[in-house]
From TrEMBL:
<dbReference type="InterPro" id="IPR000073">
    <property type="entry name" value="AB_hydrolase_1"/>
</dbReference>
<dbReference type="InterPro" id="IPR050228">
    <property type="entry name" value="Carboxylesterase_BioH"/>
</dbReference>
<keyword id="KW-0378">Hydrolase</keyword>
<protein>
    <submittedName>
        <fullName>Alpha/beta hydrolase</fullName>
    </submittedName>
</protein>
<feature type="domain" description="AB hydrolase-1">
    <location>
        <begin position="46"/>
        <end position="290"/>
    </location>
</feature>
<dbReference type="Pfam" id="PF12697">
    <property type="entry name" value="Abhydrolase_6"/>
</dbReference>
<dbReference type="InterPro" id="IPR029058">
    <property type="entry name" value="AB_hydrolase_fold"/>
</dbReference>
<dbReference type="GO" id="GO:0016787">
    <property type="term" value="F:hydrolase activity"/>
</dbReference>
Length: 310
């Protein structure tokens, strides 16, 4: 997509889209996992994990804005995007896929893992298992407890229905965000939609994600991931969308309290943003700024702690 085709998109996002990603594939437990990278591969990696029914292109107009300082990576979990499908899905399997991609990255520098929505659950589980080798975890509007699981159950029911369309254009026109929300530019929604559909081989077009992910939504996750965040050994950042119902107010209060009381050597940063659940669509520049600022805040707090202890 040329920048001329994006008249309603803010200039920094147009520049991000102009930065072509480097495509790669890693095989994990017999399934091909597709992933992209932007920037200098010798720099510290920031690994983005998408939400349910999404894919790496959801990050294509935000993540590259971090490539001036980091090696930015975005993967498609199995059952999503251009990665392969499995007979059965599990959070443990998705964690293994993130680990395999991280293992492929050169330089051996500890990654910062960023997860949105369902991807935040995957990223949190990854941090519980691999936190000692991470530079930090950032969760973006992710339902880490089941305090309001009814919202997800409703959306899963919609996504579990297999649909097909007579043309790619028809499929793209039907693309919608769940839950519904405003977007900063319709062109961004169309851009992601075009990367969300594939031919079914019989003249029809359908979504790339495997509906079975939502028909048999994996349940091998801790019922209250929020309750185990205190056991993380890496820095934590939580970005909440204030116009979203995905993370209930009670959970936000718990996270804000953690941020106030966390030790400086294992900092917790809480960033509320006045936007919808899919912040990359309505508050993309604020989201990138919050990620940058979270990482800088970690460094500042840990430096202060080290100086106080010297």
């Amino acid at each position: 997509m040329t920048q001329e085709a994006l008249p309603g998109v803010p200039a920094p996002l147009r520049e991000a889209l102009a930065a072509a990603p480097v495509p790669q594939v890693t095989t994990v437990a017999g399934c091909d996992i597709s992933w992209f990278s932007w920037g200098d591969a010798t720099r510290q990696p920031v690994v983005f994990v998408h939400g349910g029914a999404a894919h790496s292109w959801w990050w294509s107009f935000t993540a590259p804005l971090l490539s001036d300082r980091y090696h930015v990576v975005a993967l498609d979990l199995s059952g999503h995007g251009d990665s392969g499908h499995r007979a059965h899905y599990s959070f443990a399997g998705w964690v293994e896929e993130v680990a395999a991609v991280v293992e492929r990255l050169p330089g051996g520098l500890p990654p910062i893992v960023v997860g949105h929505s369902m991807g935040g659950m995957v990223a949190t589980l990854f941090a519980l298992e691999h936190g000692s080798r991470m530079a930090g975890l950032i969760s973006i509007d992710s339902p880490l407890s089941k305090a309001d699981a009814a919202n997800f159950t409703k959306d899963n029911g919609v996504l579990a229905q297999t649909r097909s369309y007579s043309s790619r254009d028809e499929a793209v026109a039907r693309f919608r965000l769940l839950p519904p929300q405003d977007v900063v530019a319709d062109e961004l929604l169309a851009h992601v939609a075009r990367h969300s559909v594939a031919s079914t081989g019989d003249g029809r077009w359908s979504w790339k994600f495997d509906a079975k992910v939502f028909l048999e939504h994996p349940e091998d996750r801790l019922k209250d991931l929020l309750g185990v965040l205190d056991s993380l050994v890496c820095p934590l950042g939580v970005i909440a969308a204030e116009k979203s119902d995905v993370v209930p107010e009670s959970d936000r209060e718990r996270i804000a309290d953690m941020a106030r009381t966390a030790p400086a050597e294992r900092p917790v940063v809480y960033w509320p943003i006045d936007g919808g659940h899919h912040l990359m669509f309505d508050r993309p520049l604020e989201l990138v700024a919050a990620i940058r600022d979270t990482i800088e805040e970690w460094r500042s707090r840990r430096k202060t702690a080290e100086e106080a202890g010297s």
